[in-house]
């Protein structure tokens, strides 16, 4: 039995990837597993996994490192799995003392646009370079890499080509999937959007397409299902403006659900949407919920992102679109309304694609083996 410690700054202790998939898989293999997070308060045991979480994300770097240092020294891990550069740096000091391996699990684009956003030109370029160098330093300290997708391999896989690495996508465990494949009614349709209600994430694009649909089909009983919320004041203002602009009659807005019940919240949806803006970062980020929608048997309409095209073929259960083209998006929705058999075919294809290719069971074994090989002998 090995001691395996997860360190994360930006993810909760009960994060879907860390807690519900990776940590549980390692615990089930007999390892002792602990998670240390800096985003919320919780110290205790859940499902046989230890958690030591503190709400210090807004504190100084020194205070964050102090929390990590305490967790690392108290647990004395054989291997540390880190989600961010700061976590890698904290584990690096322990690595020198105990020769424990450090696995860097890269799931976010670093530096992200939101990290650079507060800085004006030319300071944004300076900070982008600074964060880039921090990422390279984290790669230097790490002994192993896990990439959430192929598009996340840059730059670390290219600067450190001889370090052991694997790609571990965001495939869901079927234990957390609620299936509800539907058949379309000719006069009713429910369109669903989940996640952050912001301009960049595409809530405006979603509303524009729904508005175009109701104008083309005035007799259609159009239902709008929204699950999520805003994060910033600017997002809240934008979302309020969009609601006022479109004034949908039949709209349901729910707060984010727990991970374990997430797929139940959109069970009544007919089609699930993600119309985030096209930009460099989004083009290189594979949307995680795509796999959950497929697992639930939901046809999808998604922004035509390079990351999606590189990883999977969506044409069998949905459409990739220009998010700023509501006319074409509406045309795809009408295809389902006018051809219910196509809708049923896509719903079944979605579930079949998940069962055959995009489920956690297909990658669980390689992940466990990779970590076993990384454990200090």
Write up what this structure looks like.
This protein is an alpha/beta fold. It folds into two domains: 3-171 and 360-374, Rossmann fold (3-Layer(aba) Sandwich); 175-356, Rossmann fold (3-Layer(aba) Sandwich), CATH 3.40.50. It has helices at residues 16-28, 61-75, 85-98, 113-116, 123-141, 156-159, 203-216, 233-246, 262-265, 280-283, 289-295, 306-311, 326-338, 340-356, 361-374; strands at residues 3-8, 32-37, 42-46, 49-53, 79-82, 101-106, 144-147, 164-167, 188-196, 221-229, 251-254, 271-274, 300-303, 318-321. The strands form two sheets. It has an eight-stranded mixed β-sheet, sandwiched between helices. It has a six-stranded parallel β-sheet with strand order 11-10-9-12-13-14, with helices on both faces. Helix 6 (156-159) links the parallel strand 7 and strand 8 (164-167). The longest helix is centred in the middle third of the chain and has 19 residues, at 123-141. The protein is globular and about 70 Å long. GO terms for molecular function: glycosyltransferase activity. Keywords: Glycosyltransferase, Transferase. This is Glycosyl transferase. Pfam families: Glyco_trans_1_4.
CATH topology title of the largest domain: Rossmann fold
Terminal CA distance reads 11 Å
Order of helices and strands: EHEEEHEHEHHEHEEHEHEHEHHEHEHHH
Would you identify the regions where 5 or more consecutive residues have pLDDT less than 50? none
Largest sheet: 8 strands, mixed
Report the mean per-residue pLDDT as an integer.
Answer: 94
Strand content: 15-25%
CATH H level of the largest domain: which superfamily? Glycogen Phosphorylase B
Can you count the helices? 15
Shape descriptor reads globular
CATH class of the largest domain: Alpha Beta
Number of domains: 2
């Amino acid at each position: 039995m090995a001691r395996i410690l997860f360190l994360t700054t930006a993810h909760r202790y009960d994060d879907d990837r860390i807690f519900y998939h990776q940590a549980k898989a390692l615990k089930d293999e007999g390892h002792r597993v602990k998670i240390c997070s800096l985003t919320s308060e919780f110290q205790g045991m859940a499902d046989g996994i230890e958690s030591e979480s503190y709400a210090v994300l807004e504190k100084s770097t020194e205070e964050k490192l102090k929390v990590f240092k305490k967790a690392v020294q108290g647990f004395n891990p054989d291997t540390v799995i880190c989600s961010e550069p700061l976590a890698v740096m904290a584990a690096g000091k322990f690595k020198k003392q105990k020769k424990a391996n450090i696995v860097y699990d890269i799931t976010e684009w670093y530096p992200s646009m939101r990290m650079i956003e507060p800085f004006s030109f030319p300071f944004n370029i300076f900070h982008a370079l600074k964060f880039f160098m921090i990422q390279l330093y984290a790669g230097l300290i790490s002994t192993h890499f896990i990439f959430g997708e192929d598009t996340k391999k840059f730059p670390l896989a290219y600067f450190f080509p001889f370090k052991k690495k694997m790609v571990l996508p965001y495939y869901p465990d079927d234990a957390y999937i609620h299936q509800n494949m539907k058949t379309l009614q000719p006069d009713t349709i429910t369109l669903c959007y989940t996640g952050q209600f912001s301009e960049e994430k595409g809530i405006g694009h979603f509303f524009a397409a729904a508005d175009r649909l109701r104008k083309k089909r005035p007799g259609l009983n159009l239902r709008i299902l929204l699950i999520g919320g805003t994060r910033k004041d600017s997002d809240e203002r934008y979302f309020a403006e969009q609601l006022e602009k479109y004034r949908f009659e039949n709209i349901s807005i729910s707060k984010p659900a727990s991970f374990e019940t997430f797929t139940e919240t959109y069970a009544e949806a007919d089609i699930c949407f993600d119309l985030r803006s096209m930009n460099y970062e989004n083009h290189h980020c594979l949307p995680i919920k795509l796999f959950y929608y497929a697992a639930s048997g939901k046809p999808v309409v998604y922004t035509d992102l390079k990351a999606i095209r590189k990883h999977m073929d969506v044409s069998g259960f949905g459409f990739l679109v220009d998010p700023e083209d509501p006319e074409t998006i509406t045309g795809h929705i009408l295809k389902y309304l006018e051809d219910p058999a196509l809708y049923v075919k896509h719903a079944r294809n979605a579930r079949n694609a998940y069962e055959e290719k995009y489920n956690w069971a297909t990658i669980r074994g390689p992940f466990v083996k990779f970590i076993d090989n990384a454990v200090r002998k």
